[in-house]
Amino acid sequence: MGSVMTQFMESRAHISGGFEDLTTLRIFVRTVEIGNFSEVARRMGANPAMVSKRIAALESKIGQRLVNRNTRRLVVTEVGQLLYDHAMRALQELDQAAEEMSCMQDQATGHLRLTAPSMLGQAIIAPRLAGFMQQNPLLSIDLNFSMEKLDLYKAGIDIAVRIADVLDPGLMAIRLAPYSRVFCAAPAYLQTHGMPVVPEDLMDHNCLITRGYTFSTRWQVQHDGEIGHVHVKGNFATDSGQTVRMVCLAGMGIMMAPRWLVEPDLSAGTLVEVLGGYVPDNRAVYAVLVQRSGTSAKLQTAIEFLRTCFADMQ
């Protein structure tokens, strides 16, 4: 019995010894999230061969394979997934401790991970990013512009910029700006096909579809303070707001767009607003954080930056 217990304790100590190198654990976590040694190396400023060697050394210490390699992508094993889940939480706790200690400093420090919808982020956040980095030289920034709604816990995101009317429970949301929308079309289209008078008229028009998290053929409309939906159809769909705007400017149909995107076109008369009294006003732009993470100097600085970015949005 004693020898069995001794072997068990030695095995456990051998595995635990593989977790002492925090840098290797961080590399492993990013490898699982990204799925490519070269991309992990690029984002962490390292050599791809070094990343591969670190993972191999970790597997050797643990005595089990953590990821399976093929020519296209790394695939995490069951053991690797177990280690990832625990390592991610442990590293987040360590990062949180570092962030809270940084509150005592005058300048924000650390690694800031942000995500935002691609079109909104590229138009509103990206032009101001260089100035923010110059003002905060001790921050390193990992910025993800994507249509994908990332899990803040799993992806290790500090702040997510989201457009929403309802937010996930358990998250802290800071309202940055209203998110006004508009129905609009080119004058040439309306001259040929007529002006819709009530939302139901949209069903008889060619509606240009912008895909979000789902294929958005149910357009929200507002009437007497109540939010409803109209089922629309058309001959064009895309996940690019700028592309659907260009198609709309060419007179191909009616679009539902964020007002900030088409305001210059409306002012110039190249697009005309329709159904103005039926536009829903239930959405806003939020900075979303996990509830326990909103007190560090790094995050407070980032939130103030985002407030500045969206200050002029109507």
From TrEMBL:
<dbReference type="Pfam" id="PF03466">
    <property type="entry name" value="LysR_substrate"/>
</dbReference>
<comment type="similarity">
    <text>Belongs to the LysR transcriptional regulatory family.</text>
</comment>
<dbReference type="InterPro" id="IPR058163">
    <property type="entry name" value="LysR-type_TF_proteobact-type"/>
</dbReference>
<protein>
    <submittedName>
        <fullName>HTH-type transcriptional regulator DmlR</fullName>
    </submittedName>
</protein>
<feature type="domain" description="HTH lysR-type">
    <location>
        <begin position="20"/>
        <end position="77"/>
    </location>
</feature>
<dbReference type="InterPro" id="IPR000847">
    <property type="entry name" value="LysR_HTH_N"/>
</dbReference>
<keyword id="KW-0804">Transcription</keyword>
<dbReference type="GO" id="GO:0003700">
    <property type="term" value="F:DNA-binding transcription factor activity"/>
</dbReference>
<dbReference type="InterPro" id="IPR005119">
    <property type="entry name" value="LysR_subst-bd"/>
</dbReference>
<keyword id="KW-0238">DNA-binding</keyword>
<dbReference type="Pfam" id="PF00126">
    <property type="entry name" value="HTH_1"/>
</dbReference>
<dbReference type="InterPro" id="IPR036388">
    <property type="entry name" value="WH-like_DNA-bd_sf"/>
</dbReference>
<dbReference type="InterPro" id="IPR036390">
    <property type="entry name" value="WH_DNA-bd_sf"/>
</dbReference>
<dbReference type="GO" id="GO:0006351">
    <property type="term" value="P:DNA-templated transcription"/>
</dbReference>
<dbReference type="GO" id="GO:0043565">
    <property type="term" value="F:sequence-specific DNA binding"/>
</dbReference>
<keyword id="KW-0805">Transcription regulation</keyword>
